[in-house]
What we know:
The protein is an alpha+beta fold. Helix content is 33%, strand content 30%.
Amino acid sequence: MKLAPLRRKDIGRCVEIERQLFAGDDPWSARAFQSELDAGGYYLGAYTDDDELVGYAGLVTVGRPGDFESSVHTIAVDEAHQGQGIGTALLRALLARADELRAPVFLEVRTDNDRAVDLYVRHGFVRIGVRKRYYQPSGADAYTMKRLARSEQEVG
């Protein structure tokens, strides 16, 4: 498996994975992925040796140098490839990018997604709030989580 910038030609595959994983909520459309890429977010794909997209992740950063803030917009891995460390590799790559910018990182995750919550906690995230009925149409709640910027981690 290799990580590389997400390619526009793989948006259709991203939509397939979205529908597979998030069918009970509002999976991202091709247009949503196109908008995210157009906006200049940091999006990576996880590719097999055969160049098949099996996962993706995106980080968006706002602010100015010295005052950046990042947000994980998505991490997804095809069900057939879960449990192989792909999600961890994608998350670590996003965090490395945020660390380069010395930006804290925020995200939302379903409160019932124990596997994802555990992954985030292992990588320094803490729960800072709950968003009631965040995911639609299921009405599932989400934890808001934060990981300190690298510079804050070094001081603390």
